[in-house]
């Protein structure tokens, strides 16, 4: 079920030019409440499609009393700018990877630790458990409300220089990373030169050779055409990226109890829809990349173990800064889920 956001770019332009007030439209004049959802990913990406699913459900269930608008492809800014806009309530919602969220609530660095989850099923069970819910309770003090966890997927390494089938091949590559300290340390430990860069600037950075490579889930590699300038992909699976579905707290507080229930239910339905799409996107994406001439490399078990071993100092840094209590709980829950 694919929804094309025709006209949204024009709406986005009007929004930016008019300097839309941070006040959320209420029902004082029988006007619908405006809910602007902004995301960095392209229109075809499963995360964006999940927002369209959410839009459809909410508008139908509220009989249009909540008017949801989706702004894809970073038209309202990159992840950090969107999150800051949500704190001001100029933007009402997004789905965003845990890395950028950790800049506001550091506990979410937990989910950017390398090789934390063995597979997506283990990740889902852990994130959907009481532990995942408890971590979402850290967001309201940042003027944000987290409803649940969608899926960006396992991050994979691409580059323009050479096939990578061993840790040695990573040495010296300039790799774009998220603006997140753990990601920066990870790629330093693996021997690369990490360079933080906004996602909205990434394609140009790859095309111009500002960086040699990047690491993202397969869906992003396909839908944002990175394969056009990245002939090599290695299935490193180094970080499982959850993508939080987050709302502006001022907007959330403006909703009636019934509206909150509708929004929560819609978020759950959209989560399941999006996760299913993302699984298809990942599987079909690998085949598509091969058809486009990309060299796709799967690491051997011994080589993946070398990557994991090299990444262990990232855990030392995390526990020094945040302690081990939450990490131990996550690992214990993940082990239960995997059994």
Q: Could you name the key traits of this structure?
A:
14 helices, 3-stranded antiparallel beta sheet, 6-stranded mixed beta sheet, alpha/beta, 339 residues, disordered N terminus
Folded structure, characterized:
- By secondary structure, the chain is of the alpha/beta class.
- The chain has 14 helices and 11 strands.
- It has helices at about 10-20, 45-60, 80-90, 100, 120-125, 130-135, 180-190, 200-205, 220-225, 250-255, 255-290, 300-310, 315-320, 325-339; strands at about 35-40, 65-70, 95, 145-155, 155-160, 175, 195, 215, 230-235, 240-250, 295-300.
- The strands form 3 sheets. The protein has a 6-stranded mixed sheet, with helices on both faces. A 3-stranded antiparallel sheet has the order 3-10-4, with helices on both faces. It has a two-stranded parallel ribbon with strand order 1-2.
- Helix 7 (about 180-190) links the parallel strand 6 and strand 7.
- The radius of gyration is 20 Å and the shape is globular.
- The chain starts with 7 loop residues before the first helix and ends with a helix.
- Residues about 1-30 have low confidence and may be disordered.
Structural class: alpha/beta
| Rg (C-alpha, Å) | 20 Å
The side-by-side strand order for the widest beta sheet comes to 7-6-8-5-9-11
Helical segment count? 14
Topology order in helix (H) and strand (E) letters: HEHEHEHHHEEEHEHEHEEHHEHHH
Return the average pLDDT rounded to an integer: 91
Percent of residues in β-strands: 15-25%
Question: What is the end-to-end distance?
Answer: 34 Å
Strand count, sense and barrel status of the largest sheet are: 6 strands, mixed
The low-confidence runs, each spanning 5 or more residues with pLDDT under 50, are: 1-28
* Helix content estimate: 40-55%
Shape: globular
Number of strands: 11
């Amino acid at each position: 079920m694919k929804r094309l956001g025709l006209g949204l770019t024009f709406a986005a332009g009007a929004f930016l030019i008019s300097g839309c007030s941070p006040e959320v439209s209420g029902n004082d004049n029988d006007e619908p409440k405006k809910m602007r959802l902004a995301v960095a990913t392209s229109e075809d990406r499963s995360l964006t499609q999940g927002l369209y699913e959410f839009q459809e459900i909410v508008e139908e269930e509220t009989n249009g009393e909540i008017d949801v608008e989706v702004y894809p492809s970073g038209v309202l800014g990159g992840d950090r700018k969107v999150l800051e806009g949500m704190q001001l309530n100029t933007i009402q919602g997004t789905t965003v990877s845990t890395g950028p969220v950790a800049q506001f609530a550091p506990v979410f660095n937990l989910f950017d630790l390398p090789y934390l989850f063995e597979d997506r099923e283990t990740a889902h069970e852990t994130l959907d458990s009481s532990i995942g819910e408890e971590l979402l309770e850290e967001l309201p003090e940042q003027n944000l409300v987290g409803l649940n966890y969608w899926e960006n997927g396992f991050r994979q390494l691409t580059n323009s220089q050479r096939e990578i089938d061993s840790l040695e091949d990573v040495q010296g590559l300039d790799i774009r990373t998220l603006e997140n300290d753990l990601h920066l340390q990870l790629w330093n430990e693996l021997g690369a030169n990490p360079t933080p860069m906004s996602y909205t600037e990434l394609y140009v950075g790859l095309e111009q050779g500002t960086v040699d490579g990047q690491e993202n889930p397969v869906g992003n590699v396909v839908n944002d055409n990175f394969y056009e300038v990245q002939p090599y992909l290695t299935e490193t699976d180094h970080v499982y990226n959850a993508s939080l579905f987050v709302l502006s707290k001022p907007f959330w507080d403006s909703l009636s109890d019934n509206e909150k229930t509708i929004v929560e239910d819609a978020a759950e339905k959209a989560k399941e829809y999006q996760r299913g799409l993302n699984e298809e996107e990942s599987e079909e994406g690998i085949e598509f990349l091969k058809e486009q001439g990309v060299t796709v490399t799967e690491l051997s078990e011994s080589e993946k173990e070398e990557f994991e071993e090299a990444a262990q100092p990232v855990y030392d840094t995390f526990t020094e800064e945040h302690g081990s209590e939450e990490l131990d709980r996550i690992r214990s829950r993940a082990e239960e889920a995997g059994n």
